[in-house]
């Protein structure tokens, strides 16, 4: 993640009135931003668990339906740095409110859409919101609480991304199975509007203080070898994961797992992901390289096991728990790699990371859709596993791993 607004470490007595120093109000604002990020990331990934019913209702193939993941991912990848630079002189509260309001409206539009074209248009708007909101949220947290609360507040905000990644999709899938995919989208839309209301009530006006320029992006990529390695790892791991995970529902159905059981399995995946996040947070301080390698091995092993075994609910649950633990460790581990690789240019490096993460989500869904339509559903598991394994030589070839940052941005609070 990036920030266009990182204030000086010590706020002087005559600091602008828009900088909160009330712990209670500041934490309420942090929670409002966290809720917004949760709604945003759940919106981006919600179709993963609902591909089959959406495709059946709108009369499109599974590969075509996967464009609901591809489109916002591509748009978010482009808008992560664009929104940060383009809105550099605008009140941050206003920018965040507009972006989260757009998410609420777009999800409600999807819930009532009668054609796939309308749904894709709504997904385009969600992509703008995801890229812009995510790129600003970390810096906003730094201005909402007193100095001694900054590290924990930042962790809470980034925790919204992790929680949405591992719990948002299973919860949305469960709602979709019980009430239909349209109510699931409507629920996320309402959640976005609730977040909007909360931010309007508890957040102050936040005038921009520091603006990232476009020139910072190629500079940090060119001058930091470890950043280049981290971006490549992000591409391989996230693309591999979403190539396979986007189609995990069709894969399980082809193996005879009932739809109701799939929702439970995805929920188990989410719980395992939270555990993986905590485990990785404890390991990366001393063993960052080894943690990255462990993620690669867990993801590849889980995908291969799902591809080669005939399984029922229990064996599928074991495999998805392993997979969930591996993917749950991805955001906190790779975020720390990036931050440690360029500690003096964290904003620009993190902006590249956000762009690549979202681009990889889109590419994974796109590659998976092409493979499902042209080869077979199981092929996505092999593609994803191979991409995950390719991380290992990158870790071995990385010249250095920077020392752990004092504040783990995406670690759980």
From TrEMBL:
It is found in: Cell membrane. The lineage of its organism: Bacteria, Bacillati, Actinomycetota, Actinomycetes, Streptosporangiales. It comes from the Bacteria. Gene3D superfamilies: MFS general substrate transporter like domains. This is MFS transporter. Keywords: Cell membrane, Membrane, Transmembrane, Transmembrane helix. Residues 29-403 form the Major facilitator superfamily (MFS) profile domain. It comes from Nonomuraea indica. It is a multi-pass membrane protein. InterPro entries: MFS, MFS_dom, MFS_Efflux_Transporters, MFS_trans_sf. The chain crosses the membrane at residues 27-46, 66-87, 94-118, 124-146, 153-172, 184-204, 225-248, 260-284, 291-308, 314-339, 351-372, 378-396. The keyword Isomerase does not apply. Its main location: membrane. Pfam families: MFS_1. The keyword Phosphoprotein does not apply.
